[in-house]
Request: fold
Amino acid sequence: MTGGQPSPVAETFGKAAAEGRAVLVGYLPAGFPSVQGGIDAMRAMVDAGVDVLEIGLPYSDPVLDGPVIQQAADQALRAGCRTADVLRTVEAVRDGGAAALVMTYWNPIFRYGVDAFARDLAAAGGAGLITPDLTPHVADEWLAASDHFGLDRVFLVAPSSTDARVASTARACRGFVYAASVMGVTGTRGSTSVVAPALVSRVRAVSELPVAVGLGVSNGRQAAEVAGYADGAIVGSAFCRRLLESGSDPAAGLAAVRALATELAAGVRAGGDFGTIEPLA
Reply:
């Protein structure tokens, strides 16, 4: 809740729960493959069934990102993507009717100014931030700014998190809790995490917030499997890879992300029945 009203993210999770399905969260860095190209790709993802967009703020030291997302973010930076372009992308996605969160490391927000970024993000229609390298116990300035501007704050828990850390992190979250399903950096994997269901259960034991699982989901079968025990499936590297593989062909890139989003959307709607999902070739 923000200002007594459910945020766009909370509304999205609530609607999906009423439909008996999980939420599909898709990630791309802003400015990739170009600013407008990224906006077009995100709109294609939403049209094909992505419910919430994670818009990455490209950063030069992405310590938690795997090689695919690093390559995508580096391409955006080399093309001159700046924070203003991230906010422009947020505005475009929100104008298209989807909830938009910015996924960012903390240093760019600190340098921009926490209050100033919160103000500008809210003005662009952004729902809030996902902050992978910021923990609640050192986030007082962000907690205050997000309260003031009515923004969601999504922190991460991991399989290594203690029960006390899971509880304190969940208490600080708004929108949903991000459950990192594996230890390590982002990237597609051949199978989903065997420890993720237990992590989701640990979060649910201390919080009523939705729990979305990220790191490793790359196809419809995996999305359906995650949807069987979590409230949302987060997919990033697989979308980046599709655009990278499309090279300089924008039409092929849009077709590729649209096809992947269609498959993943079918997965989160399968209610855990992943045997019915046919992955793309």
